[in-house]
Amino acid sequence: MPFQMRPDEILNEVKTFNEKLAQGMTNLMEVGEISTGVTPFEVVYTEDKLKLLHYQGTAEPTNKVPMLIVYALVNRPYMTDIQENRSTIKGLLDAGQDVYLIDWGYPDASDRYLTIDDYLNGYLDNCVDEIRARHSVDAVNLLGICQGGAFSLCYSAMHPEKVKNLVTMVTPVDYHTPDNMLSHWVQNVDIDQLVDTIGNIPGEMLNWTFLNLKPYQLMGQKYLGMVDVMGDSQTLKNFMRMEKWIFDSPDQAGETFRQFIKDFFQQNKLLKGEVQIGDYTIDLKNVTAPVLNIFAEQDHLVPPDASRALKGATGSDDYTELSFKGGHIGIYVSGKAQKTIPPAIGEWLTARS
Amino acid sequence: MVDWSEDMMKNWSDAQRRYWDAWSDLSKMGQPGHSPAGLGIPGLGAPGFGAPAWTQGLEQWWKAVSPHTVPGASTDAFQRMVEMGKVYMNLAENAYNAQQTGNADKDTITTWMDSMEAGFRQCCGQLEMGKFGAHGFGVGQSAMDSWQRVLNSMGMQAFQEMGAGGFHMPTSENWSEQLRKVLGTPAVGYNRESQERLQALSQLSANYQEAMDDYLKAFAKQGIESVQALRERVEAMRNDGKTINSLRELYDLWVDVNEQVYAKFAMTDEYQVVYGDLVNALMALKQGINAELDSVYASANLPTRTEMNAAFEKQQALRRENRALRKQLQELSRKVDALAAAQAAPAPVAPKAVEPKPAPVAEPPPIMLAEATPPVAKPAIKATVATAAPAKPKAAAKPKAPRASTKKA
């Protein structure tokens, strides 16, 4: 018989659950402010709501070519530096890299007409130029994350002379793989009507969409599992830190969202070489810098095949893939990732800088 | 507040200890039906003789505690956890009752699955207030909460109960037909235009409810399929001699099966349609509301959304222009600095016997190299920036020329 529980065992399980819950509540009351971002940085450039952060490592960078991290517009970039023992930024600094990161800020209603062209040929290009000037170099190393990876690919195709090496992490390239849930869902959404009606896309709408990717785990099981970790204050705090990040979703600038969903998700134009950004038609063959493409094998947001499609799509004759056994977030915050991903990036970059 | 909380927690823990000790004693004595109901502990006593009321206890405890918490991420997460805890307690109650009756295996799992399936079938038949949220093992309610947050973020709080919630209207075809007839009635009289607009808005509202109903029904259908899949999984376990040894295992099995079924369902054309229709219907309704609001604002001589958008669009255009001008200015400034530096440089030392000549103006290498680089075309500022050298780098930038195919002809 599959279900083998005596009444006293059921009682014991319920009792334990309640005890953990009560203890957890006490810990929760004492958890205090949930801080995020642990590595010191200096803001070296600002423009509108954008900030360019320069991280300070404990030692001088050994790689003289600076690295710029281009994060997605979705969610906040502090995920890469979320806590002391879970920091991709720290790992990269330890690997000898000189790390910069773009914090795009929180768009408001006045930003609804920001386009991808504004983001890439405006903000991103200005940040790249700022770093080039500060370091007296011709080109920088770009590290793009998720949507930021797609943006980095586009930027590298438009400005190949400014990109020394390109690292893409969990970056969708082919948006029409059979397992791409997000892409499947938006095919029937009238994006023009959506943006015309509400302008910026609320972060809450993105949250709702992302939660629906795995509703039973993300809206149910996760919180029941939380009871098990609440007894330990530090573990609870770490849980809450991730929880804060997950729901810290900036609104999306309307026009950028319009083009990104229509061109990338609905029509898969990036792979077809048909994305138009400002005066440029994006041809991935124009990406000539060495490329390191990192993806997660259990990624529920960006299926690995969506990232693998980059192989052979660029004009680079130096293409490397790195597969990580984990998920979309785990690739930045898991203990295993800390030990493997930043050192691998550092080694790959240093060999090419 | 912390002190108060600690006292409260201590009392709660003490009460729990007494309560669970009593339950444990009864359980060991093998006296089903003799509940330690009461014990003077609010929320922990069973409403009916012999039946545990753990879900109710948790709910009452949360009601007592939650007013003293500070709103924020922590409380949100804890609230979700309590909601899941109630679901878990409910599972425990069912399991406990079934085990006490002595027909454990069949009653605990089969009865539970029968109950879930019945709930989903009810949802498919007619969606009524709270029905959907009550099923799906708590996930249905979380999904609804999440959708309500979407509506709140758009200023549509008034519509958040529509669908499976508060002012839900009947969804029978007959009712829909009647509503459409009413909304199709020709408008007449002085307020004809206003009446027409309101009729159109009501129609959009009805469309949204229909889309929401279809969406929830699709989910309920998936719920039925999940229960069926769970039955098959349990049967397979039975055949393989595998056992479930804890409530958590049972819960995790349920989640695992649901995610598998959902993953397939979410990739169907049916889901694509109901998802798109829901968003599209909501946006059509929101668009209608926006138009009405603009009409009201205009009549009150207040700025309308349309006017604000026009201002924002102009502002963005000015930002682009400003950015282009700033880059030009920086480049000019650099050129001027370079020229000034060259002029200030000491003249070459002339041979004593020769009449000194004016010092040649040195060509500033960075400028030369910069000018040799290919122009960077920018859409909004093409005419001005195309002739400018790349901005800022102090070093001589020698970028590779972009492929001709990259640029728009």
Concise summary:
The complex is a heterodimer of chains A (353) and B (409). With 353 residues, chain A is α/β, with parallel strands linked by helices.
Structure description:
Chain A: InterPro entries: AB_hydrolase_1, AB_hydrolase_fold, PHA/PHB_synthase, PHA_synth_III_C. Chain A: Keywords: Acyltransferase, PHB biosynthesis, Transferase. Chain A: Residues 66-332 form the AB hydrolase-1 domain. The complex is a heterodimer of chains A (353) and B (409). In chain A, 44% of the residues lie in helices and 16% in strands. Chain A has 14 helices and twelve strands. Chain A has helices spanning 7-29, 88-94, 116-135, 147-158, 181-186, 191-198, 203-211, 215-229, 233-246, 254-266, 269-272, 304-308, 330-333, 335-350; strands spanning 41-47, 50-55, 67-70, 81-83, 86-87, 99-103, 140-145, 163-169, 276-277, 280-281, 291-296, 319-324. In chain A, the strands form three sheets. Chain A has an eight-stranded mixed beta sheet with strand order 1-2-6-3-7-8-11-12, sandwiched between helices. Chain A has a two-stranded antiparallel ribbon with strand order 4-5. In chain A, helix 2 (88-94) packs across helix 14 (335-350), helix 3 crosses helix 4 and helix 6 (191-198) runs antiparallel to helix 10 (254-266). The longest helix of chain A has 23 residues, at 7-29. Chain A is globular, with a radius of gyration of 21 Å. In chain A, 61% of the residues are buried. Chain B has 409 residues and is mostly helical. Helix content of chain B is 66%, strand content 0%. Chain B has twelve helices and no strands. In chain B, helix 2 (54-65) packs antiparallel against helix 3 (73-101), helix 6 (173-183) packs antiparallel against helix 7 (192-240) and helix 7 runs antiparallel to helix 9 (269-299). Mean pLDDT of chain B is 71; it is low at 31-49, 164-168 and 354-409. At the A-B interface, helix 1, helix 3, helix 5, helix 6 and helix 7 of A face helix 1, helix 2, helix 3, helix 4 and helix 5 of B.
